[in-house]
Amino acid sequence: MMKCPFCSYNESKVIDSRPADEGTSIRRRRECLSCGKRFTTYETVESLPMVVVKKDGSRQSFDKRKVLGGMIRACEKRPVPFAELEKIADEIEQDLQNSMDREISTEIIGERVMEKLRMVDQVAYVRFASVYRQFKDIDTFMAELNKLLSEK
To answer: Domain ATP-cone spans what residues (predicted)?
Structure first.
């Protein structure tokens, strides 16, 4: 039931439906069953807010731009298209939304980013991992590199 914006009647019929916003919503043309005027509505999936639990226990709302920013820094001067990083950030956000957990630790987010970067660019992966995992010395750094080499 959708209230007519012209006469406030509670019933209308759908005349046309089509995907909008790259398939993330549906655009519907409706006709009021009382006054006959037409109007457009959009239907989208409700996204629930996600809270990120940081290492120090503090909480803040999830921001996909922060995920993207971290990947951009890791991919600096690397042959990774920006569109690929945007796609990864979208995938991570969607995975987190689908998990139905409203509180997500930075560890989970960091692991997902590393998982995706590892497949795209190994140098970017090591850069991100070195900051994320806070490599204490050259030995921890070398251990991660050796792990990568042994997987080849």
So the answer is: 50-140
Q: What share of the chain is helix, strand, coil (3-state, %, to 5)?
A: 45, 20, 30
Amino acid identity of 151?
E
- Strands (DSSP E) contained in the chain are 12-20, 25-32, 38-44, 51-53, 59-61, 103-105
Query: Structure tokens of 118?
Result: 């590892």
Report mean pLDDT in 10-residue bins for the chain, 152 residues. 92 93 87 97 82 92 93 94 94 87 90 92 88 74 80 74
pTM for the model stands at: 0.62
User: What is the side-by-side order of every strand in the sheet holding 103-105?
Assistant: 59-61, 51-53, 103-105
The two structure tokens encoding residue 125: 């992966």
